Amino acid sequence: MKNYDFHQLLEPLEFQEFARDMIQVREKIDMEAFREGPDQGIDARCITPEGKCIILQAKRWANDGGIRWKELREEKKKADRIKPDRYILVLARDVSPEQKKKIRELFHPFILADNDIVTGKDLNNYLGSGEPGYARVEEKYYKLWIRNTEVLKNTVRDVVNGELLAESRLEWEKARQNAEFFVETAVYEEARKLLAAGRAIILSGEPGIGKTTLANQLAIYWLSRRGFDTYLWAESVGDLYKAQEMPGKKVVIYDDFWGSNFLNAYGAGKEERRLARLIESVRLRNDYVLILTTREYVLEQGMRQNEELRALLERYKLECRLHSYSLTDMVRIYLGHLRRSSLTWEQMKALYRIHDQVVLSPYYNPRIIQMYLGSVQPGDRPEQCAQRMLQYLQEPKDFWEQIFQNLSEEARVFFIILDLMPLPVNLERAHQCYQAAMAGEKEGSLFRESERVIAELEKTAIYTETVPEAGNALRVRFQNPSANDFIHQYISRNFVQYRELLLRSCCYFECCRKLLSLCALTQTDGAFCRRVMERAIDLEYRCFFEYNRDYYSYYELLQVYRNPAGEPFRKWFTDKFRELLSRIKRDSADVSTEDLKEFPVAAGRAIEYGFYRNKEEAAAAIFSYLTEMTGGGETELECFIRSLRPLHLQPYDLQALSRQLYEKRDAVMLSGKELEEKAERYFAGQGEEIIRALCACGFLRRWNQWYCQVNPGLFFISELHFFAGSSQRGKEYLCLLWFIDTDWDSFARQFAPRETEMLEGLVELDRDAVIRYALQPLARKFCEDRGNAEGMDLCRQILNCISLECYVSRRGEVLGGSGGKDILWELLYAVADVAVWDILPDCFSAEQMSMLRTEGGLEETEHWNETCWLLDTARMKEEVLKESGIAERVRELWEEIKSYSNWKNS
User: Quick one: pLDDT at residue 675?
Assistant: First the structure.
């Protein structure tokens, strides 16, 4: 039999969908679902061919709390309005036969049979029945089996006894821990199908996207659902062949399989051929599944040098790209990172509130998010955590500083020189600049070394991609623009230290142009600037880009021309500018859009630095040029000039919007560690045991690694209780303080949303203490205040105290109302399940309604958009009180109060 804890394993909406799918299988019907949010009493619905309406309502309640009768009564009111032909209630928790009977009575006449109250135990029985339909539902909700199958536990022992045990055991533990927070996406589904078809898959893609996590999740699926029993982590093709000889049905992961050994072990092609043979053989085996991961550009390089492998690898390849994920997937991934982190609840809540800004940020990156969350300390203020998260995504200076300092020396050099290149840049040309820079730093800099550098940087800072339009050329760029911003600022602050290295790396014109900009920014001495200018002029025609950049290159260089450092090159610039104007007029077809947009700035510089002695002559030449290039008319020229203006938009303050939409709650969430710290004096080394007791009695509700205080006073109550210990005086003090001496209006305003749960929790914790020190004194006082009243006089006094006003439909049905807000009635409900609303009948007869109207006891009003009557029970006549049974039920209520007034601890 299955034994899933549905409350712990599934989120509210997931449980609602799971319940619907299970009932669809059981009843062999299709049910329409409804979006998350207020459901008006309907989580799913089916209209049968006969026109019958079946309603499903799902409640994800924990086993360690009481039945939430108040919530069920609210659902009954909704059912009364809907009037379904059949009502099915699905609970995540178990209930006793007596509780099930009481629920069925409450929902009469809509729940037709006991099996329409489906409990957690029933759901587990269905899943364990072997019915294919239920099995498909179980497989769909991977959170059920991903943490609860014996296969996962046994697999660790299998690995420990295997030849590849050390690395495999470590990776397996990480895989199991990460599985709890895995987000099932369309990419996962595609990968699962591809692996099932070919028994091998190559997951390629950008760094930080989650290729390794996806690989492990696929392995867990095969171990949990497909009968495989051994998990292996390979480090070489040799390991893959060793795994073939091992007994059992194996899932083997080879992570970053080309990795930094690209031109070492694989250079001669021998290993590639061995790998190809293995992939082909795996397809025909039923005891071996192979999952490989690699960075996209490494895979492309490997296939380029081994073209005979291309067709094979392309067949098994699946690209993992961030743009493949929907916004919903990205939100779920972000929330998964929040849940797996060591954040306090308040920190998690603050970071949750900005999820829309995070996923809509152009700098969104799961690895960056994970690394940032790892840097958050428990003492950090929640609002600062959220603010820093957005800063890190947009301008993460401190974050990148930490990453930069943890890099190897070679990786720092590569990171630095990328700032001088127009990104994305051809990877081979970036290698050339890197090797030139390292020539003065280290002897014997090799291509293999730079390959390792790229692998190191890919984990945090850079991203490589292939460009099919350029013959699958490889390009490199920063993963996040903020990385570029950081390194530019870092170089500016430390320019003197790095300027010689930067000059050595200038193998292309654009590098010189950017280096000159840095010289101007840092006010570097003229001698160094002249060296850079000389290098730039030498490299004028050596550019990163393939197309002719003659004009554009000149314009860029002119923008960083400075006096007096540029004075030696003044004649060159003047001649060049005049020459370009002449050439443009002769052959305007060569002018590109980039040239056109750069020209105004270049022309301004030409005038500023005196390349034209006569400014009117310069203006005429420039105006003539622009008019001709934009179409020959003043209107076109005006449009062009307008297009150069930057567009300024008012920022849309999503954060402010989030704050408005977020519903502040009184409940507080604490991690287990915080809980122990805040209540150190009574935990006394028994933290886990006491926390379990608080959860069991309803004081706390657990959500992942956090604990919810049912209301703001909850922690205070529990602290007082344990502080009082076995002392009767302490318990008396607790109850007097909390119930007798508390102003009820204040109590109601503060705790109304959860007062019932809080009281039920206290009762479960120490029922006798609540009765003795809270309920009994209030019951005695109530009885004393009634004096010698009896009969109908007593009935009216009690009705006046209860102050019930109810809505009654024109058909006589009691629809709801208000009243009964005294602490005595709340305690009676928590201790004895005696509700003052129970004195009302479900429906008044036509004769009773006629009497009420005649006596003036009804007032016409509206309730839920329905015209109805408002009834004040204190104004009802004696005959109707007796006829409707209210008088008798008030008498029973009085006897209950008296019994607690005279209560003795048994």
Answer: 61
